[in-house]
Amino acid sequence: MTERFKIDQNEFLKSTTIGYYNRLYIGYSRPGNPDFLNTLKNTFNTEKASSLNAAKDMVVNILLDDIPLILKDNDLINCLCICVPRSKAQNVLTKSQLMFKEAVKTAAVQIPGITNGTDCIIRTINTMTTHLKRATIEGRISIKNDGSEPYPGITKDTCIIDRDMIRNQNALLIDDIYTKSINIDEDCIQALYDEGARKVIFYAIGFTRGN
Q1: Residue 93 belongs to what domain range?
Q2: What pLDDT digit, counting tens, does each position of 82-136 carry?
Q3: Count of domains forming the chain
């Protein structure tokens, strides 16, 4: 079931945008939290294939239910489905760390009126992973969290964007978790408008207000 919310205009986003989410993200391991989203992030590249596939199937099923409702709510017949890219360059990630994107693609090709645009934005330069503010250690695994923190225009500076595919299209921009005040999603929305998108609607599986 989708919930509608408003993404306010700020220094990253020039105009208020409609957003939707499926459920609240209240904190990893807390009762009722969608921990399957953390599984799909596979930050440390240690998740088992069975866990990744189960989490992917959950996301696909949620998208298959929610996206048609979003299209109907906005009187849209056709829409380009785009993913917010991960914070690190795509070529340094493994296939098992791109499973959320694969889930969006799997759902997109099954929904009438949706065009798969999951490769419209590809990160080529590392940025700061906002949920890992510094080098992180889980057990004996260390991750170097390099790259810039969010700033207005970071999407266009660090990504290749398919302007030809985006121009004059309605776009549904999808992320796993939306956190107010991080502004990565806001910047990505603005980048799509700057590249000629007609209308951008945002959707996330999980929603957290942040600070």
Answers
A1: 3-208
A2: 999 999 999 999 999 999 999 999 999 999 999 999 999 999 999 998 776 544 4
A3: 1
